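Backbone shape codes
____________________
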Amino acid sequence: MSTEQLGPIDFALVEFVDGRFDGSIAEELLRLVADGTVRIMDLVFISKDAAGEVVALEVDELDEAEVGLMTTFGAVTAPLVSQEDLLAAGELLPAGGAALMVVWENTWANTLLGAIGRAGGEIIVSQRLAHADVLAALEA
């Protein structure tokens, strides 16, 4: 993969309140991948046992029954989540908690980035606005 054709990269850590993955978000992630909206770069399931030990499993290490359609993401392209990232994520979880860390490329932006480059432009600052800040501004 050429880095010149790499769209913006985002990540999210999604905590599951009951500490269990049921695979219910898999269909939407699969749709976004199929539509070319995103490319999943890394996908890791994280859990913390009652003693506080953090366990992280890449999607290809899980039994399909545990996560439903999630295991169809066999084309994860690059392990971008480090051991330090996983430990930090685990610290955020309560004992018995579970989370999904997903890193994705916003492939929808590639054509825009190409147009910017062809026009001689270069993005010099890019930042995601906090959801709560946007909501507060819209309500004001």
Notes: Helices lie at 26-34, 64-67, 83-92, 110-118, 131-139.
